[in-house]
Fold:
Amino acid sequence: MRTLADIAQAAKAAKYEVARLGTNDKNRGLMAIAHALTNRSAEILAANAVDLQEGRKNGLGEGLLDRLLLTEARIQGIAEGCRQVAALSDPVGEVLWQRTRPNGLKIGLTRVPMGVIGIIYEARPNVTVDAAALCFKAGSACILRGGKEAFHSSLCLTNIMRDALAAEGLPVNAINLVEDTSRETANEMMRLNGYLDVLIPRGGAGLIQAVVRNATVPVIETGTGNCHVYVDASADLDMAARILVNAKCQRISVCNAAESLLVHQDVAEAFLPLAAQALAPDGVKLHGCPRTRAILGDAVLPATEEDYGKEYLAYEISVKVVDSLEQAIAHINTFGTGHSECIVTRDYTASQQFLDQVDAAAVYVNASTRFTDGFEFGFGAEIGISTQKLHARGPMGLEALTSQKYIIYGNGQVR
Amino acid sequence: MRTLADIAQAAKAAKYEVARLGTNDKNRGLMAIAHALTNRSAEILAANAVDLQEGRKNGLGEGLLDRLLLTEARIQGIAEGCRQVAALSDPVGEVLWQRTRPNGLKIGLTRVPMGVIGIIYEARPNVTVDAAALCFKAGSACILRGGKEAFHSSLCLTNIMRDALAAEGLPVNAINLVEDTSRETANEMMRLNGYLDVLIPRGGAGLIQAVVRNATVPVIETGTGNCHVYVDASADLDMAARILVNAKCQRISVCNAAESLLVHQDVAEAFLPLAAQALAPDGVKLHGCPRTRAILGDAVLPATEEDYGKEYLAYEISVKVVDSLEQAIAHINTFGTGHSECIVTRDYTASQQFLDQVDAAAVYVNASTRFTDGFEFGFGAEIGISTQKLHARGPMGLEALTSQKYIIYGNGQVR
Structure:
């Protein structure tokens, strides 16, 4: 078994080789990985069967088992993901600007690989390949630490990827899986200063907060989304209902799903019954403020402060009637997680004020929060959605996995 | 005395107000601060006298006392700095791009204020104003924690800035100084998650590493510079000597000063005596590898591994003869701190290889490393020089103090 120290050394050495690969070489590696995954699917399914068996023995819930499950079709999907990453344009080497200074120095800012990227994630084998493919295309080596419930699957996938790189004469240590899945080793990984240039946690709030609290390497915080739909006094109420249902119900387990509905008092009596009716077919449970309950009745549960801060990830939503746009914005900036926020309005000034003053990665006028996604934004793929303000905010595609470097051309300048 | 908790609350509340200020309002505030600093210089000098007296009593060295010292002229300089920041263009609100997606959604990426910026720095009263001015212009509230030796000066400067904002009807809590200068409170500040959007340490390596190790909020690591000048086989040796002397001697105490000289073996015999002669007037002490000592003699001290990793910040330099460009690059990537690196060469391929493969914030061909600086790069002012790869790398001007936000204009889109 490779220790974390071995892996850290190997990845640090490999990062210079990966950084030097041209786009064609990187794409060749990704296509070879896709091909190998398809070719060796029997091995992957066998490894996955071990994880599933252990998972059942350990009493994992059906949801977790489903995330863990690989099928022939899912493996094809993962391989197709690699081909899609190969098709993305390469961010490395892009010159963002170059200027000539009065002293003749030509100073340019260039996009360069990050170096070594760490990813800590849960028991989703597909993330092993998705993350490795994105890091590789972005010119970085990666150190992956997946949930231990998916260990056999992830190790098998990693070995197949490494074999594919080796067969192509590409740096094998571009892709590394932490084989010791103890919590101590995960904590050690969070403190690999000098080896890891960035660490990205992908998963639930508990995992992400553990990384934020324990890491001494730079971290990009991803994920939690307490997203709001605010129905303004001037909203088209039918549009508001359509957006609400989509944002809440189209896929409840994701971070860009709506968890809270705010309604301007002027339209509360008209809109709330419409909203309740629209959410009824999906059996959405409402947690309402007193004014909401006065309109919709006691079938609506009373909303607590805790409800307003909750990411349900379920067919539940908190509902609050607000006095004004300003109160809606203040509520969102208090209870939101800085992910995705939506106003439904026909009023120009209200739309601008909401866009300006709501503090979140993505702010929508008259569209569902469900669009906060690398594919929907046109980035092709994403490594996660950043909810912090440093480096990257919102869906992170290949560019978010790169750093920058100033290159300066002189002819003998001194100060 | 305001507690850190009071300050954190106040700054968080103020950030929304500061973010909403237009450029004219922010500039008005900065000009008022400049005016007030000049007007109230007697108070500042009196507060500074207290710090100086305590510093002398506590046996601070002359260098530290000089950094602490304010004079009428230095106060004018600080005020002038505020006027210069007012003159910089405002990064907030810049739309970096906007695209229309196939479904008609218009997605744009906009530069927005960071929110609350924390700065931890040493006993330099001027940083109190410089940092506050930059954060204010960037639309953020700031929490400043300066070295306790400069406490009376920093508090006086902060109060003057806050008074000036109040008199202009601008949010006073945009600028906050941590008044409890204990180490416990500094540590508490590093863990103000939910309040601080970023924390930037400015100062020596010890301070920066303490912040990197202890902080749970996002940090931008700044500062340490083990910068190299590499003299290639094809270098113009006179130019190389000029660049070397400038990079080493023009100002020894700064992070972009050269700390190590690498010389290609083909020109070692010709260049090393030239280099020794050029550095002699400043009395630069050389720490050389065996080959260097074979050429220059035993007057050169033997270089240890520690020397190669050392930021002397003094009239000292390590010297190593390398076999090849590749060895020079590998040495720099091993011992460098990712700050500023220079090759002196006449060879096109060597210049490109050095630019591509050296992993640092700023890579120079034929120019002194001393140019890595916000003013020299044309950013007007800087909050520090980032040596990490996340968010900002190299000199950080106003743009590095901002975040981004996606704004999405829809007309009812759902997924």
